[in-house]
Write a structure and sequence with these properties.
Shape: globular
Largest sheet: 6 strands, mixed
Low-confidence stretches: 56-64
Length: 258
């Protein structure tokens, strides 16, 4: 496609559009979302515009999750569905605050522990750690078992505690993380927007980048107790089929789709 683009960008665009149409199953589309009511309505509107032959948003039903729900499981009747797993930890108002070092810790935990344990050993599609202001999320798609994934995450703190990594190796991870950070913030306008969205100012973002660059192996290891505390909150949200729902994790809310 790259070689074709210089000569005929229109043809490449047509090919991609045809590919998208052939890959997207527009019959029997089912969407499950969880979030704030206003944002859900916006998303429903966007989905029905993208798939005009489905039921419109007025016919789609929404059921709000109870405020303060700590964990939730959604069970689908689709037998081929695998487990999609998300765990959140909230540290807003605690002794911990987001920093550049925390962001690097998330990258180390993702690449050094979650991906090897869940994707390489257990066949998940992928795994990710996302650090934001006030919370951290650890997610995995296509895992085979909720309980097994939970047990893997319970070991995340010990992984950091026993981290055996040279500073040179960590520096390579830092370079990659900072490169991604810079790509998102290379535009002055976007930089200001990102600062506003995060509730911080541009000076904070500059300082945050400097913290990322100065992270040491000991800084990363020091977050072991933090990860232990986040995992112990048991804020687990999962989507799976009836077979995958046979687990021992104590979900506070279970929804079965029909």
């Amino acid at each position: 496609l790259q070689s074709m683009y210089a000569e005929s960008p229109e043809a490449v665009a047509d090919m991609l559009q045809a590919l998208a149409i052939s890959l997207a199953d527009r019959d029997g589309l089912m969407v499950y979302m969880q979030g704030y009511e206003g944002a859900l309505e916006e998303m429903l509107s966007a989905i029905t515009q993208a798939f005009p032959h489905t039921e419109d948003a007025r016919q789609l039903s929404t059921r709000p999750t109870a405020k303060g729900t700590r964990s939730a499981l959604v069970v689908t009747p689709q037998a081929e569905a695998t487990v999609h797993y998300l765990q959140a930890g909230v540290f807003d108002g605690t002794q911990w605050a987001r920093s550049g070092q925390m962001d690097i810790m998330g990258r180390v935990l993702q690449n050094g522990y979650l991906l090897p344990e869940l994707r390489n050993k257990r066949g998940a599609y992928g795994a990710q750690v996302v650090v934001e202001n006030g919370y951290i999320t650890l997610g995995a798609s296509g895992v085979s078992s909720i309980d097994e994934t939970w047990q893997v995450l319970l070991g995340a703190g010990d992984y950091l505690r026993g981290l055996n990594m040279t500073q040179d190796y960590l520096d390579a991870i830092i370079v990659s993380a900072v490169s991604t950070f810079d790509q998102y913030n290379s535009s002055g306008d976007y930089y200001a927007m990102e600062a506003d969205m995060s509730g911080q100012n541009t000076e904070w973002l500059i300082s945050h980048r400097a913290e990322m660059l100065s992270t040491t192996v000991e800084d990363v290891k020091a977050y072991a107790g933090f990860i232990d505390a986040m995992i112990r909150q048991e804020r687990v949200f999962a989507y799976t089929n009836e077979q995958g729902a046979k687990c021992s994790f104590p979900f506070s809310e279970i929804t079965t789709l029909r």
